[in-house]
Specification:
Chain lengths: 176, 63
């Protein structure tokens, strides 16, 4: 057997090994590439190229994501950015509502956001902001046709949604 | 064919096949998971707001 004949299978083996290593790197790159370009509606804003129904659907998912992020029992995580993102999102959903042929209760969502906004203003001792947010809350509940538009009722509802045992405002009052 | 060229082709072909396999696997795992999670989140939010309206609005609006 010549030297060249013994080297050939060895070379083929090395080329296969290099190809398999490349494939392994490709699998990881493909997986990561897909993950990084994935548009998850709960986290990302819906692209404007979507159909109105899909936009509304993804917007509702994003609103859920923001609500979960805003939910807390001591008011400490009611981040201003989350609340302002929620306000902007609800305005977008309201603009899209008719085209999507859906009727989500956006006035209720607005009231909940205003309630969170009032909590935020209260934590900052911003009396003007607090009064404006409470007024927004009342207006939204009125628009939704609620029988009881008192902030106390909504406090109980939001605490319940956030899975809080006591009222946020009570907890804050106790802290102060 | 030169040795380096052979290795180059092996790497490129391997990377290409691997990328397709990786992306397909990701779409069947995290892609499906992300879609399911979004559907759950959208449905849950819609239902929650509707339930609140149903419970607390006047009879005309709660329909």
């Amino acid at each position: 057997m010549t030297n060249d004949q013994t080297e050939r299978p060895q070379r083929a083996y090395v080329v296969t090994l290099v190809g398999l290593t490349g494939m392994l790197v490709g699998v990881v790159a493909g997986y990561l590439g897909y993950f990084l370009t994935l548009n998850i509606p709960v986290v990302h804003s819906a692209p404007s190229s979507q159909q109105p129904f899909d936009q509304m659907f993804d917007g509702m998912a994003r609103l859920r994501g923001l609500e979960l992020a805003a939910a807390n029992c001591n008011g400490a995580s009611d981040l201003p950015r989350i609340v302002s993102n929620e306000k902007r999102l609800v305005d977008l959903l309201a603009a899209n509502e008719q085209r999507a042929n859906l009727d989500p209760q956006l006035d209720v969502a607005r009231a909940i956001i205003a309630h969170r906004s009032a909590d935020l203003s209260n934590a900052r001792s911003d009396k003007v902001g607090f009064a404006a947010a409470v007024e927004d809350e009342r207006t939204s509940l009125q628009a939704a046709g609620w029988k009881d538009i008192s902030p106390e009722q909504l406090t109980g509802i939001v605490d319940n949604l956030d899975r809080c045992s006591g009222s946020k405002r009570e907890a804050k009052d106790n802290n102060q | 064919m030169k040795r380096s060229m052979r290795f180059g082709i092996a790497v490129i072909v391997g990377l290409g096949i691997g990328a397709v396999i990786g992306a397909t696997f990701a779409s069947r795992t995290i892609g499906v998971g992300a879609r399911s999670m979004s559907q759950w989140a959208a449905g849950a939010e819609y239902a929650q707001l509707a339930e609140l309206e149903y419970r607390h609005a006047d009879s005309e609006r709660a329909r």
